[in-house]
Each structure stands twice: as structure tokens, then as C-alpha cells.
What does this fold into?
Amino acid sequence: AIIGCIVNGPGEAREADVGLTGASPKNLIYSDGSPDHKITNENLLDDLERMIRSKVAAKLELEREAQEKSV
It folds into this structure.
């Protein structure tokens, strides 16, 4: 969830694997529904991409492990 609104964003970000609420000059990143850290606009895209790629890799690994156990 990427929400630009500081009012509604936190509630919606709590429902996401990776959430972002925008507020200048810092944005708040949520991880698994909990506030994780603040990030400046300059580092926003790189940090957000890193977090998303990490979450996807972890989910793919869990799926692979579950598939191996079912065989």
C-alpha cells in the first residue's frame, strides 16, 4: 500500500506487507502492519524497492519449502 495521505495512510498501511505513508520531509515505512522506520524522499524509492524485493524473496522461499514438504 502506498498512501500519500498522512490521515488515512497509517490505517491502510497497517493492513499491508509493506506500507508507506507520505509526509514531507520524511515518510514512514510500515513492515507487516507495524511502523518500521522513517525515510527521506531522496532514499525513498531505493529503500522501498529493497523492502519489497526482500519480502517477495522470503515469501517465495516459504512457498518452496512448503512445496518440498508436501512431496
Summary: DSSP finds two helices and four strands in the chain.
